[in-house]
Amino acid sequence: MLHPNSDRQATLIVSRQPSGSITVTGKSLASLGYHYSGSGVSDGEGVWAEWNWDGRKLTVRNDRFGFLPVYYAQLPSGFGVSTSALELIRAGASTDLDDAAVAVFVRLGYYIGNDTPFKAVGLLPAGSELTWSDGTPSIRTLAPPISETVSTLSREQAVHEYGVRFQEVVEAMVPAASERMCVPLSAGRDSRHILYALVRAGRNPSMVVTARSAPPRPSTDAQIAAKITAALKLPHTIIEQSEDRFADEMQKDLLTSFCADEHAQMVPVARWLDDQKFAASWDGIAGDIFSCGVYNDNKMLDQFRKRELAELSGWLLADDGYLTTSLTPTYRERWNRDLAVTRLSRELDQYADLPNPAAPFFFYNRVRRELALCPYGMLNQQTQILAPYLSHAIFDLLINLPFDYFRGRLFHSEAIDQFYPELPQVEYVSTSTGFVPEKRSKIWRFAKSMSLMAIQGNASQSCIRRGFLLPRLAKAMVNREFGTEVPALFSRILVMLHLEESLALSSGI
User: From edge to edge, which strands make up the β-sheet containing 78-82?
Assistant: First the structure.
């Protein structure tokens, strides 16, 4: 049974005045996300966070995996906790950047561990309890450690058990029959598995929704989703990309606290969800990590086993490419590659001894720190976002399966096809190939807006070289193929420019 909590976003600021009195701004008691319970489901399931200020002590807790971001900061006169890091900056947290964290971000496109752009702002670790009472905060871990024991299930048994457990989890999470819900559907496995489990449970969604892919990616998602919904006779809405990608990038940055270089293409979906006022929507986050083996790689596994973590870090960070020429000399040194390698190596070390180290590393870093910011930073403004792959039963089943079970990326396909033989057997497309050019008017709008942001900023203090950026934005205006690539190609540059602009505003963010 689903138990939705009342809050979507919240902030609490506790301040001690010179007189010694304490003032409180925001919510003293907050319950975010959702819990659920049911047959075969353990206590504490769901994506949730909560805090309570009782007048003397603040206690903050979150679920086992910590996908719903909660930030905290020691303030000049107190303490703050919020679902937005920017609210803590507004409340007085220092704006000094964490150079090691940013050095990783500008290369990977996401933050790792519990880093944020700011030294003073931390992310509540997964499965933790934070307490504060007018001093230094104390954090203790409540989540169980990841088991280091390799599963004894055969591959066939594991595929079957996956199908059984997933159906049970979805049925335990289904909202009340009176509640309207929708299901996003792509051409891949994760969202289809959710839809088929709901259909099997006799709980068809009020609407199936698919976002039209942003160029240069072809709209394979829309094509495959249309086939499935037609076969199942389900209502299907395709959300078009907006005319102003730059504005979407700006909105995405604010909703994700400048912690992601992706997701602007999902801003139109977020607006649509807000307008439709669905009680719940579903999300396939983390499905491909454990059941499709998308990050499994023999070289990566070998370097984990040999603890060649600096080498593995260098490989994951890849070549710096345009980074070395896009940054000014000052910031090139501040956010140097060695700093990024050292920080990433420290994070990799936490997973090196696990049976399949790549899966949990990417789960707690790329998936939790970047992908989760779409459902739990953008899409959840008005709608409860349900994530069945974050079930403890699913995680505990898949996390310790042997690396070899996922070769060929067929494990998840087999689980779906074997468990739902009566439902449409439509091809899976994980990666769309091809190139769709963007409209020239949209390229011009984006390039012009980004150029103005760069020109209006303080060049002497900026981390980005105008001499690098402006000629390339001019090229985008005349070269349609290059212009189509620019939003993704310069996504991290744009995040940093927007962060600079926001912090420079005298009125705050």
Answer: 22-26, 11-16, 78-82, 71-75, 121-123
DSSP class of residue 220 equals H
Cβ atoms 61, 142 nearer than 8 A: yes
Cis ω before 268 (30° cut-off from 0): no
CB of 203 within 8 A of CB of 197? no
CA–CA separation, 204 and 235 (whole Å): 10
Could you tell me the CA-to-CA distances from 485 to 261, 290, 472, 490 in Å, in that order? 14, 30, 11, 9
CA distance 253 to 249: 6
Cβ 295 vs Cβ 406: under 8 Å: no
Determine the 3-state secondary structure of 51 from DSSP.
strand
Query: Hey, what are 503's tokens?
Result: 């912090």
The pTM for the full model equals: 0.96
Torsions phi, psi of 141, nearest 5? Answer: -90, 130
pLDDT (tens digit per residue) in 55-100: 999 999 999 999 999 999 999 999 999 999 999 999 999 999 999 9
Residues 391, 170: contact at Cβ < 8 Å? no
- With a CB cutoff of 8 Å and minimum separation 6, the contacts of 500 are 457, 458, 461, 462, 463
- Tell me the fold of 155-292+358-419: Rossmann fold (3.40.50)
Specify the pLDDT at position 39: 58
- Could you please report the per-residue DSSP string of 56-103? S-EEEEE-SS--S--EEEEETTEEEEES-HHHHHHTT----B-HHHHH
Which residue in this structure is represented by tokens 């349609």?
480
**Cα 216 from Cα 238, distance rounded (Å):** 18
Neighbours of 81 (CB within 10 A): 27
Q: How far apart are the first and last CA of the chain?
A: 40
Q: Are 382 and 274 in contact (CB under 8 A)?
A: yes
- 2-141: which CATH topology? Glutamine Phosphoribosylpyrophosphate, subunit 1, domain 1 (3.60.20)
What is the per-residue pLDDT across 242-265, written as a single tens digit (0 to 9) for each? 999 999 999 999 999 999 999 999
Give yes or no for residue 193 having a pLDDT over 60.
yes
Domain 2-141 identical in fold to domain 155-292+358-419: no
Q: How confident is the model at residue 481 (pLDDT cuts 50, 70, 90)?
A: very high
